[in-house]
Amino acid sequence: MPLEGFPTQSIVRVEGELAGRALLTPLVAPSWQHVELLAPTIVQLMIDARGWPQSLALLSSSGRADADQFALQQARTARFEPLQDRELEQPSPIASPLSWIQLIFEWHTLAAPATNVVIPAP
To answer: Average pLDDT for residues 98-111, to the nearest whole number?
Structure first.
């Protein structure tokens, strides 16, 4: 039974200049098994006018390397709504201006399976 106030699934939030632009690719955020609660993974992206990531960096680790690598891979595939050319109403062919955003992966943590179980002597 989930505890009240604790998330029941992982989520991805977008913060920064592009928070109002549509995210065109769905981002996956699975639950992870771990012995402690995982901190959010924060990835910073530089996005061009076409909506594609041009650069990314891990700003904050979750404490689990494979979850962080998963978040980085998801960030590489992110595509945002392109900026519109006001005169032609078509996506701008130039790759600037650049926008900075953060993807925040808030992980749902599952209890790790028990190991090294001590069996009492008869």
So the answer is: 92
Residue (of 79, 70, 57) closest to 29 by Cα position: 70
Average pLDDT score over residue span 48-52: 90
Return the biggest CA–CA distance within the chain: 83
CATH fit for domain 11-111, picks 3.30.310, 3.30.70, 3.30.2420, 1.10.3720: 3.30.2420
Burial 50-71 (b: 16+ CB within 10 A, else e): bbbbeebeeeeebbbeebbebb
Query: The pTM is what?
Result: 0.77
In this prediction, residues 78-82 reach a mean pLDDT of 93
Tokens of 63: 């404490």
Q: What angle do CA 98, 99, 103 make, to 5 degrees?
A: 140
Average pLDDT, the chain: 82
Residue ranges of domains in the chain: 11-111
Q: How far is CA 34 from the centre of its chain?
A: 18
